[in-house]
User: Which sequence fits this backbone?
């Protein structure tokens, strides 16, 4: 009974996410809330490098001491947007322009870039941030990423406007379907194991 209830709840959450997301996810910037802090756009080529250095950037930002409200709000947006984008775990979210998770990847990586650039003006973090910027610039040149763009490369963001995945596009994207199916299978396996643990032992 517990297993059935949990599975039904899981299915309900997924269904509500699919129906609530709507096709508007890819149309939110022009008409979405603009009362927060503006986040400049990021190119497709920059995204690739920013995704590779995201961990170092966020670690540096988490240790920053001379912060202000502007910086903290942008960093908070990074973390929220990253979670909405399934923590960057969806296949093709960064590199595949057709991925339902590509626009939300643009959002959290654009905000990550903004955090990095803000740290270049912080006395204690400036040197480390500058080293990361130089490494990213060099990587883009070596890999020929500077001129690569995609449908969302010119799109700016705003901390008041959360970008969600385009749930309605998932059925047409095999990699996303496979990843979500795998997650569902893991959840089901974990629930079955939990049920066995709760089952009374035979005398």
Assistant:
């Amino acid at each position: 009974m517990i297993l059935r209830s949990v599975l039904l709840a899981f299915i309900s959450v997924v269904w509500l996410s699919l129906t609530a997301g709507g096709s508007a996810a890819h149309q939110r910037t022009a008409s979405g809330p603009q009362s927060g802090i503006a986040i400049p756009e990021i190119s497709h080529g920059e995204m690739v490098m920013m995704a590779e250095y995201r961990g170092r950037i966020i670690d540096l930002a988490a240790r920053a001491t001379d912060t202000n409200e502007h910086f903290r709000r942008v960093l908070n947006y990074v973390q929220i947007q990253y979670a909405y984008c399934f923590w960057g775990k969806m296949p093709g979210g960064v590199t595949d322009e057709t991925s339902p998770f590509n626009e939300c990847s643009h959002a959290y990586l654009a905000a990550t870039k903004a955090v990095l650039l803000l740290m270049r003006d912080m006395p204690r973090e400036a040197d480390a941030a500058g080293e990361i910027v130089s490494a990213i610039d060099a990587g883009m040149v070596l890999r020929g990423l500077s001129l690569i763009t995609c449908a969302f490369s010119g799109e700016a963001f705003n901390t008041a406007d959360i970008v969600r995945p385009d749930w309605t596009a998932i059925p047409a994207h095999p990699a996303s379907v496979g990843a979500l199916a795998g997650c569902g299978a893991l959840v089901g396996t974990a629930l079955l194991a939990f049920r066995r643990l709760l089952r009374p032992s035979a005398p």
